[in-house]
Amino acid sequence: MGNKGDLMTFRPDIMVLDATMRDGGLVNSFNFSDDFVRDLYITNIKAGIDYMEFGYKASKEMFDVNEYGKWKFCDDEDIRAIVGENHTDLKIAVMADVGRCDYKKDILPKAESPIDMIRVACYIHQIPTALEMIQDAHDKGYETTCNIMAVSTVSESQISQALDILMQSPVDGIYIVDSYGSFVPETTRNLADMYLEKAEGSNKYIGIHAHNNQQLAFANSIEALSRGASIADVTVNGMGRGAGNCMMEQMLGFLRNPKFNIYPVIQFIEKHMVKMREECVWGYDIPYLLSGILNQHPKDAIRFLKEHRTDYTSFYKEQFEKL
């Protein structure tokens, strides 16, 4: 399958989604100050970002509201307190995890909500429930995506079958998700070609959500875009679970679309992220590299670093034994 577009030229179809508060919220339990959130919202508008993901629509019956900041739950009134009626080109997104969201109750009709997009996240065995959530959000008037997580752990035939099913749904976009940071550009290229071939003629777009365990989040993101994917997830300074994500500033500095502006992002980093890095930790480290190489969930690496361990060889052997 040939390239859909040369990234050295202007690709008007490419969109960028800021996932700082959602993936970054996994680092600080979603305890972002209102000043941080408001400044990030304004930064995204100035930078030309297409979507801003505020966090999760998590169930308050499953998750203790006293243990998490409000962006774990993304009540509409909390979002509206930041964006008002959002008379801008920036669209508002939230993520709803299959099995962790009371979507029928907590996701209001679009006409009553400041949210524009519902991103349904699921594992491949949860596709049937994901379809119900996508249909519900679509019927309520939202844009929708399906983010199939941990595809590095399932077979190509399973992915193919899941895509066939999703192509029959009203979902607007489908994401390639490198949950464990295990992809290399060749992996991304092959998956992007598969997703795009399935989506051909459907008016559905393909997106990429990459983690930086092997310091390849940016490389994998632009590889997917070069094959024809139309939207990339980024976070400011790469803030995200474990090794973090593709950096917004890196992506905006690369894309040729004149609507994007890196300068307000640099200002935001100077004002907020330097201090944020003193309060919580994310980004490349040896345990994340090893979990990425071994295609394993980063939860053990996160625990390893929280315990301030440096016996990397022991960690490697512990992880290798799990293969």
Quick tags:
eight-stranded parallel barrel; TIM Barrel
Can you describe what's shown?
With 323 residues, this protein is α/β, with parallel strands linked by helices. The protein has two domains: 15-279, TIM Barrel; 286-320, no CATH class. It has 14 helices and eight strands. The protein has helices at 20-23, 25-28, 34-47, 76-83, 103-106, 127-139, 156-167, 185-199, 217-227, 248-254, 263-279, 286-293, 299-306, 312-320, and strands spanning 15-18, 51-56, 91-97, 117-122, 143-148, 173-178, 205-210, 231-234. An eight-stranded parallel β-barrel has the order 1-2-3-4-5-6-7-8. It is globular. It starts with 14 loop residues before the first strand and ends with a helix. The relative contact order is 0.14.
Give a brief description.
By secondary structure, the protein is an alpha/beta fold.
Kindly state the percentage of residues in helix.
Answer: 40-55%
Total discrete domains: 2
Give the name of the CATH architecture of the largest domain: Alpha-Beta Barrel
Distance between the termini: 33 Å
Q: Name the average pLDDT.
A: 96
Strand order of the largest sheet: 1-2-3-4-5-6-7-8
Computed CA radius of gyration, to the nearest angstrom: 19 Å
> So what's the CATH class of the largest domain?
Alpha Beta
Principal-axes shape call: globular
Total helical elements: 14
Number of beta-strand segments: 8
Q: How would a textbook summarize the main sheet? A: 8 strands, parallel, barrel
* CATH level 4 superfamily of the largest domain: Aldolase class I
- Which secondary-structure class do the elements indicate? alpha/beta
Q: What is the CATH topology classification name of the largest domain?
A: TIM Barrel
The poorly predicted ranges are none
In sequence order, what are the helices and strands, one letter per element?
Answer: EHHHEHEHEHEHEHEHEHHHHH
Regarding quaternary structure, how should these chains be classified?
single chain
